[in-house]
Amino acid sequence: MVYQNILLETNDRIATLTINRPDKRNALNQLTRDEILQALDSLAASAEARVLIVTGAGDKAFIAGADIGEFEGRTSLTQRESMKGRRIFDAIEEFPKPVIAMINGFCLGGGMELALACDLRFAANNAKLGQAEINLGIIPGGGGTQRLTRLTGEGKAMELILTGDLIDAAQAKEIGLVNDVFPAADLRNRVFAIAARIAEKSPIALRTAKEAVKTAARTNLREGLDRETDLFCLTFGSEDKAEGVRAFLEKRKAEFKGL
Ligand code: COA
Q1: Which residues of 192-208 are buried (b: 16+ CB within 10 A; e: fewer)?
Q2: What's the confidence (pLDDT) of residue 1?
Q3: Helix-helix angle 221-235:203-216, to 10 degrees
């Protein structure tokens, strides 16, 4: 598959999807969104890829939001039409493998929303993050009002969304928006080391754990606990569970095959 606006590679079980429009600060236009969806489908089906890292090309931006040029001339109706169908944010949230946002610069608007849909977020110390839509006279439309609020609480989400202000990586960590912050020069190595540790686990357990955690935001506590019990028991049907338990008892490292 030849892509124009993204780069895709898989090495040592870790897939990397790089938004590759550095001249446009990796802004998400329609073609880029289409290519992200295609890439997610191919990676979901790949037995080799166990963890996905999403990042931006160049040293300036992760993703500087939706491509604002595409908003010009759009009406409520034509914008609604353009948003029909599968959305990248939901596709990432529902992707059956862990997804890590490696935030290497400006992470704005739709870029923030993409990062929010990921399972883990790690930022370079020089990254800047914000929901800047309000400055364009619009509001976040890729899940920002919902996922940011769930992650940081209403007060911080409201502040970011109403002011459109950018915050630095350290502030983002303080409010729980990013998991950790690393010096820009170390970001890649640190994130790949975390991804490698996750990639060693059972793909079935990873997928099930992701689904169980995601359930927390979608349901009440009782239903969530019941779902967790079901999913927990489901993992007992895998060969990976047999291997994990056996390896512990035999005092050796488990080799998970995803079966
Ligand atoms: N959509 C379309 N084009 C964008 C863009 C976006 N979201 N973000 C940046 N670009 C383009 C610029 O128009 C410029 O294009 P040009 O060279 O053809 O003029 C190029 O990327 C470089 O941007 P520039 O502003 O010169 O870079 P910078 O490093 O000085 O500033 C930003 C980077 C991200 C702070 C700034 O580009 C910006 O504020 N972008 C918009 C962010 C935003 O509002 N996002 C929310 C969208 S809903």
Answers
A1: bebbeebbebbbbbbbb
A2: 81
A3: 170
**Dist. CA 218 → ligand 1 center (Å):** 34
Structure letter (DSSP) for residue 23: G
Is the beta carbon of 28 within 6 A of some atom in ligand 1? no
Q: For the purposes of burial, counting CB atoms within 10 Å of the CB of 249, is it exposed (0-12), middle (13-18) or buried (19 or more)?
A: exposed
Which of 172, 69, 164 has its CA nearest to residue 128? 172
Question: 152-176: per-residue pLDDT in tens?
Answer: 999 999 999 999 999 999 999 999 9
Burial class (CB in 10 A: 0-12, 13-18, 19+), 105: buried
Q: Can you tell me which atom of ligand 1 is nearest the CA of 138?
A: 48
Distance 109 CA to ligand 1 centre (A): 11
